[in-house]
Amino acid sequence: MSTTPLWTSGAMAEAMRAKVRGTLPEAVTGLSIDSRTIAPGEAYFAIKGDVHDGHDFVEAALKAGAALAVVEAAQRHTFAPDAPLLVVDDVLAGLVDLARAARARLKAQVIAVTGSVGKTSTKEALRRVLGAQGETHASAASFNNHWGVPLSLARCPATVRFAIFEIGMNHAGEIEPLVNMVRPHVAVITTVEPVHLEFFAGIEAIADAKAEIFTGLEPGGTVVLNRDNSQFARLQRRAGKLGISRIVSFGADTKSDARLLDVSLHAACSAVHANILGHDVTYKLGMPGRHMAMNSLAVLAAASLAGADLALAALSLSQIGPAAGRGARRVLETADGEATLIDESYNANPASMAAALNVLGHAAVGPHGRRIAVLGDMLELGPTGAALHRGLADAIKANHIDLVYCCGPLMRNLWDALSTGKRGGYAESAAGLEAEAVAAIRAGDAIMVKGSLGSKMKTIVNALERRFPGKTALDEAAV
């Protein structure tokens, strides 16, 4: 890892066309938009959010050791005359300018990832496999929107060999300006599914919005597409119209360039046999679920296209695991044994819900254990919401889920569609369901909790962990 500072204050001022106030340090070690977590030596960007104005926390950031603060000209007189400031007309626009400067100095292979489902897990898998082969930078958490992408790009050291950026959207037109900042050599679309339907006429419109990622592709770059997805041909045509000649597909389809040949699904991992761009590879994937195995094909294809060693990349996939809220497992210590918690509480849509129910269906249970799904509303589905929730009954039956707890007005549709024997409990909110769901747990159970972020299913995860203190679950295939 390079010891070169991330930025000099002079380079930042030049990139953002900022005016300097106070005495600035030469080196800036990092960038932050959160005064609560800022580290000494970092620059603080006073961004105006939906709830808070970052200018209200400039003093706290400087007191915490921030090297300098980036503030807007209209508020510069709010701060002490000697405060170390870079003054710009608009802080977010200044961050975008800095991101563009970061991209201009970058010599790395750049990968951008979008998709209706699997963006973050694919990005994190790429971080792991590429990080084992050279200095790698990737977006933190799910920093994939109008401030997360420029922040992630501006944080990228000039010295890295690989850089990976996650790009998200809720509406048409949101990806294009972000990918034009990132300018990837490889662009991955994991899949196109019926999510955010509240804002789109249908899945074809979602595909068109995802296809905006093609507009920022570097000349001679490659797009990686899911050949098994219903929108593959549409995306392929769109890429062709933009003059993109290299399209790499992945999937189980026999025409796939990165093709799944066989997969053995286990409770906490998978064994995969695939052909990646003409090379046969067999590897262990440290995350369960067929959907994860499919995304691993895209990971290996993108890594190969970026110049990484395929065999080493495949070996690294055994080391990855689900993140908090995205399938992370925890052993719950009950009075008479252990249960397993699968935390899927970060978000949900019909595709990810079906995948999570499939993972629960493969989860190991004890002699008297049950597979229990605790489900909250999937949001932003528009007029199709009721039918899509009701349709989950098929996945619950197919995956042999024993008991279902539902909360939220949309999940009432699923609750009404369930057979009496599968009904665990229903409440209007996660808070209302919490006590009943926690009281139901016994030794041997496997419990999966999932819902859209707005459904606040994390409260039930927290309640389970408080009631049954335990430990992170181990992958039994690795020990």
From TrEMBL:
Keyword annotations from UniProtKB, A to Z: ATP-binding, Cell cycle, Cell division, Cell shape, Cell wall biogenesis/degradation, Cytoplasm, Ligase, Nucleotide-binding, Peptidoglycan synthesis
A molecular function (GO) term: UDP-N-acetylmuramoylalanyl-D-glutamyl-2,6-diaminopimelate-D-alanyl-D-alanine ligase activity
Reactions listed under catalytic activity: D-alanyl-D-alanine + UDP-N-acetyl-alpha-D-muramoyl-L-alanyl-gamma-D-glutamyl-meso-2,6-diaminopimelate + ATP = UDP-N-acetyl-alpha-D-muramoyl-L-alanyl-gamma-D-glutamyl-meso-2,6-diaminopimeloyl-D-alanyl-D-alanine + ADP + phosphate + H(+)
Domain named Mur ligase N-terminal catalytic: residues: 28-84
Domain Mur ligase central: 113-303
Superkingdom of the source species: Bacteria
Pathway terms, separated by semicolons: Cell wall biogenesis; peptidoglycan biosynthesis
EC number: 6.3.2.10
InterPro entries in alphabetical order: Mur-like_cat_sf, Mur_ligase_C, Mur_ligase_C_dom_sf, Mur_ligase_cen, Mur_ligase_N, MurCDEF_CellWall_CoF430Synth, MurE/MurF_N, UDP-N-AcMur_synth
SUPFAM superfamilies for the chain: MurD-like peptide ligases, catalytic domain (SSF53623), MurD-like peptide ligases, peptide-binding domain (SSF53244), MurE/MurF N-terminal domain (SSF63418)
Binding sites annotated in the UniProt record for ATP: 115-121
Task performed by this protein: Involved in cell wall formation. Catalyzes the final step in the synthesis of UDP-N-acetylmuramoyl-pentapeptide, the precursor of murein.
Protein name: UDP-N-acetylmuramoyl-tripeptide--D-alanyl-D-alanine ligase
Organism: Bradyrhizobium erythrophlei
